[in-house]
Amino acid sequence: MQFRRLMALAIVWAAQADGLAETKPNIVMFLADDLGWTGLGCFGSDLYETPNLDALADSGMMFKDAYAACTVCSPTRASIMTGMYPARLRCTDFIAGQNRPYARLTVPDWTKRLDTKYTTIAEALRESGYRTAHVGKWHLEGKGDDTPGTDPLSQGFDVSIEKPAGTRGYFLKKGTTSRAGTNYATDWLTDKACDFVNESKDDPFFLYFAYHVPHTPIQGRADLVDYFRQKLQPNATHNNPTYAAMVASLDQSVGRVLEHLAAHDLTDNTVIVFTSDNGGLTQRYGKHDGFTENLPLRRGKGSAYEGGVRVPTIIRWPGVTKPGTTCRTPIMTIDYYPTFLDIAGATGDTDHNRSVDGRSLSLLLRDPATKFDRSLFWHYPHYHAGGDGPYSAVRSEDYRLVEFHEDSSVRLYDLASDVGEKNDLAAQRPDRARALHSKLQRWRTSVAAQMPTRNPDYDVARESEVSKRK
Asked: The pTM is what?
């Protein structure tokens, strides 16, 4: 009798487990490359047209205070894969970084890859029964023979598709076209993302679609460039038709993937996340490039300011997020790892989880008025063409403090009243500045952040030649 009862219970538990497996939500993450905070229509662009992403925002939740973990791409991508701050990973610059031998400071040694000792979100989800795919730009792979196992297929992805060989910039080699009839790489990669959806529709899947657009080179489809050229307004903030064409291609790609989900009746069981790896590139070596603007934010990619790290973000979790809602609680790309584990009902790796810096966004997705009692941190001990030299920063409530390492100066801004970071309050509110600076220093110690050091070969004349050659 007892044996039959146990067998009956086992059958019930197995059936329940099967039911849970059937209801595991699919997860699709769209990651734009160098798309600034106002780079979508729904986030305020006065030129770029993004009807698919605007519709996604209407059906999901917009995050107005969402951040990338770094002002450049590879560290942010590493934070998404691991849930950890780039400083903890020691992956603190884009791979493979810039060589500035005559700068005032020498950058510390850093890890030019996503170290294989960490458990990626793809590995954790695959362990939980998900089929996983990376499409597009990885930019976490080590260079050379001494760093095996850092490609996507070695980091938990069942499928990995990058731009086809022979692609020049965004244009495919002669004779290669997308199913849309174009030779634009974004359209071709979208074909592959849709293929993965088709192939995986019967099982839970994780699709990480990491775009190249609108990163340089600034190249758009001719039909879209012509369209936006006719729309230019003399006083508009955004006025580059080629860049607008790239953003439109991004939006069209998202729309095609969403259409494929709908065609397979997967919309209601798929979580969609859209964000960017850092802000839009606005200038290099002190000169404005004319690509885009992140106004009202200050500066852009590579810089120490909000324009470098605040990014447009939309999340839709059907049945959980209330359509058309907006959240102002600050979040960061470190939060996606624990969020995806929550959504999937996955446990991940216990040892890895102890070092995860992010927090699950599940509470925010259910109630956007939820507040997180935490600060957010950045550490960029490097030089960048679009930047201001090595820096660290902290945001606590509405205050943001930036420490510049060349001269150890600090700047304090109240983002509630000064989102453009025009008014430095460090001298007016020294107690606040000291408290945040101490918090920043303690955090750097807690993650063993590596610091830049004085460069004995510093040569102001030779360093200035770097910018003159660009």
From this structure: 0.94
